[in-house]
Amino acid sequence: MAALEKRFPRESFTKKLERICQRLDEAPIRTVAHRDFFNKPATSRVEITSLWVVGSYARGAMTCGDLDLVLEYEVIEGPHPASRVLAKSFFGALQYVRYYYGTPEDSTSGVLFPDAVHIWGEPGCDWRKQIASITPDPNTGRAERETDSIPLRAEQLYMAPERLKQLVAQEKEGIITWSFVEITQNDLAPIQATAISDRDRKLIRVAPIMGKKSQVLIPAIIRLMAKYSPFGDWDASESHRGRLRCGATVLHLGRPSLPHYPFDDEPTIEQFVLIPHISAKGPNGAWIIRRGPKHPDVQALARKHAFFLATAESPDKIQYRDHSKLWSTEILELFNSREEAEASAAEWDDGTAREIRSANGLELISLFALVDVIEIGDHRLPITHSGASYFDRGLATMEELLAALPSLP
Questions:
Q1: What is the pTM of this model?
Q2: Fewer Cβ in 10 A, N or C end of the chain?
């Protein structure tokens, strides 16, 4: 993350810090209009009693990613306002300024700040002298953090610091693995209408329900999924403003988060893709998270395989319709052996050339996500709620699928 994060001259942050101190001198107590816990209009009187500068600016770095501040405050009257609303009421909207609340020893950041510099304590204090006391140091840079292996900034994600630390630990243990794909201006360039596939036209139709900043990402998402989910289809029923589903891939946009138990009994999800909105600071890209080599599903699927029929490299799906039903369901037939697949291919009489292919391990999850029902021998295993409703039974679990799949010799 540190390599892709844009940094700015120290002087630009000094000006912002001076403005903040001037605002505190003018009025350390302000009335904050906000909405309370029940989303009803409320007002509170809040006093800021101390301000510390922390992070790379406090250590004298010549360039900084953000101006990190710790504020100690007291609510004199009314409910606690949201931290974002509080800062904006006192200081306005200042870009690249991060506010933590508490003290350097115990703040909402969740980390200690041993290099904190106390800048402001009361109206009339000599905060200019305190700012000048920090000696610029060309040899000082960004401090290493426990979560540096995460390719996005914490501010781009809707996850608490402890959750990010948990993900780092799981990645080190091999429970999950991830990669990062940078999104460039070329990736965001519009795609000619004639070059958009029938599959991706479904995404275009979903676009109006998305926010404007998410719509900017659509060309990059189309290009990304052409590589990372070539056979998946866009699922309108599982897509909304900040969440999209393409085959075995679930995408979260905006200020994304990862479910707390992302792959627990999820036989149709191969990967999560977290894409923040494009920003001047960056990093701009897609954080792709998958099961790691030590994940129980990976170990259980390691020796599982199946054969299937494919047409033009895409798995053959069967539209199944019972006359007693008002709708049809999609089935993918998997075979225990090549001989079974060949026998099934011979039964087709439509003149289509079918290829027999095989899938092993995690490749099987990509197949599961293509249809409503998986058929293996005598087993019909519903994967979606539509498939479960069609055959009037519960969703198949990963355990059931594992039991039905053949094992490698």
A1: 0.80
A2: C
